[in-house]
Write a structure and sequence with these properties.
mainly alpha; 336 residues; 83% helix
């Protein structure tokens, strides 16, 4: 629990710290100023939109599990999704969410290998969906960002990371021996513990391959439905930031171009080594969007956007943490 609290404090401090530096040093704003930028109606619409996104994501998992024959209660699925978001927000590289979801589903009576299959396959499907979006929008996004700027460099970095990670996943399906060579090379470069690191990467690759093969061969209709819902979710998710920026100035982009840019920037943020990419998201998005809508509008919109999509899930997750203590007590009683 101490580690959870510490990571939560770090995540909040880093994100707010970057925003405050930009506000106070660059734009001479105070911490309340972003909220004064937007009317109560706009903030209410933004909150309703975020709640709608969470409900959609919960229903998506609820429908997927029901199609697979699991009759979990809606409240249980809601806790799984919300606490999954919480652990993603407080762990480096947002890696904590999926393992928690697998553990939680297993404790609710789901077969552990099927829980792993579902979460791993959804993660991989999302990865390839993001890659397809990056490939489709790369040239369009480059026309938006002035050449030679830091923003343009961020787009190139995001595209490169997205392609590299997807390529790594493809290699895992083709030949595990290539994965051994790649992981061995990375281990030597970064002085990681050789055999342990190689074994962990190989086990992860093998498990991911088995998970995806199983679901797409045995439960292809479930995965097709889930992937369709996932694409819709990814498509509408950036609209909140678009709406906030468009309230202050006329964003000189169509929504599709804006969508492609946000997805590409998210690819960089996923690999920021801070809890939930905190600090990295605020900084990267500001660097890019100040070239499009101006620094003041960019940081105000980004701050409110992050309050609703990052800090709110942390707050909700902290409230729900008592459920984890209850699971621990039940396990101790069974073992006793």
């Amino acid at each position: 629990m101490r580690k959870i609290v510490l990571n939560t404090i770090i995540a909040i401090a880093l994100g707010l710290g970057v925003v405050l530096i930009i506000q106070l040093v660059v734009r001479k704003q105070n911490v309340i100023e972003p909220f004064r930028t937007f009317s109560d109606v706009v903030l209410f619409k933004a909150l309703v939109f975020v709640i709608g996104l969470y409900l959609f994501n919960i229903l998506r998992l609820f429908i997927t599990l029901k199609m697979m024959g699991y009759k979990l209660r809606f409240r249980e699925v809601m806790e799984n999704v919300l606490l999954g978001n919480f652990f993603s927000a407080i762990t480096p590289f947002a890696l904590g969410g999926q393992p928690f979801q697998v553990m939680h589903l297993s404790k609710l009576g789901m077969k552990s290998y099927e829980a792993t299959n579902i979460i791993a396959s959804r993660t991989l499907t999302g990865l390839f969906t993001t890659l397809a979006i990056d490939l489709l929008f790369f040239k369009r996004v480059l026309r938006i960002i002035p050449r030679g700027t830091i923003g343009a460099a961020m787009v190139y970095i995001g595209f490169t990371i997205g392609v590299a990670v997807a390529l790594f996943a493809v290699i895992a399906f083709i030949n595990l021996s290539w994965i051994r060579w790649i992981s061995g090379t990375i281990g030597k470069l970064f002085h990681l513990k050789g055999k342990n690191f190689n074994r962990q990467v190989e086990e992860w690759s093998s498990s991911l391959k088995d998970s995806v093969n199983y679901l797409w061969s045995e439960k292809w209709y479930v995965m097709l439905a889930d992937t369709t819902l996932s694409i819709f979710y990814i498509l509408v998710q950036p609209y909140l930031l678009f709406m906030l920026m468009n309230h202050s100035v006329k964003v000189p982009l169509g929504y599709l171009d804006f969508f492609g840019l946000v997805v590409m920037l998210n690819t960089i943020c996923y690999y920021t080594p801070t809890p939930g990419a905190s600090g990295g998201v605020e900084g990267i998005f500001h660097v890019v969007f100040k070239e499009i809508v101006g620094s003041s509008v960019a940081i105000s919109s980004i701050f409110v956007w992050r309050m609703l999509t990052f800090y709110l899930p942390i707050f909700v997750g902290l409230i729900l943490l008592w459920r984890m203590k209850r699971w621990e007590n039940v396990l101790e009683e069974r073992e006793g």
